[in-house]
Amino acid sequence: MTAETFKIRPAVLQDAATLVKLYSYYVEQTAITFEYTVPSIAEFKKRMLKISRRYPYLVALVNQKIVGYAYLSAFHPRAAYGWSAEISIYLDPKTRHQGIGSRLYAELEKIARAQNILNLNACISFSETQTAHLPLTSVYFHKKMGYVQTAHFHQCGYKFSTWYDMIWMEKILAAHTIPAPSFHKFPEISTAFYTEPNTTDC
């Protein structure tokens, strides 16, 4: 994959239909998400709008075709958690293992540091053995990206007539100073990363 064929940019609402189609694979065929029903395009746009008011929501393109997306979102709504964010990623299954996920995560981490986000947390469905609906690639990917497991919840998700565990993995991005640094919403700093329309277009 050459630099000319690969691109990362902020998502816009016009991407929603494509992202829903991509996400539908994970809802309908995997336990990677515990969601049962594919959201409508209208619902998906609401989710994008809510997230993009504070956090980056990025898409990856190869030859101008969206092949994946990733975003940060609130780890918890209460104020004291403001320096932590949850990180999520969904790739076209046909384009996995090509470095796209690593590049999306690297971009999100760069933006998170600029926002003064200190902790990134990943919520991952888990089984002790690989199943037809849940490969263990997500755990291996996060370990490769420098995340460590911090919590394990047992048999808390039921999908495809199977009980699944859930783990949290975490990566510390910067020192936890006192006083805490000022948090910057992504729309406030997006022009430092992108000159194209950013997530404020959502």
TrEMBL record:
Swiss-Prot/TrEMBL keywords: Acyltransferase, Transferase
Keyword Repeat assigned: no
A Pfam short name: Acetyltransf_4
Gene Ontology molecular functions: acyltransferase activity, transferring groups other than amino-acyl groups
InterPro entries recorded: Acyl_CoA_acyltransferase, GNAT_dom
Highest taxon listed in the record's lineage: Bacteria
Entries under SUPFAM superfamilies matching the protein: Acyl-CoA N-acyltransferases (Nat)
Ranges for domain N-acetyltransferase: 6-174
Name the UniProt record assigns to this protein: Acetyltransferase
Organism expressing this protein natively: Liquorilactobacillus satsumensis DSM 16230 = JCM 12392
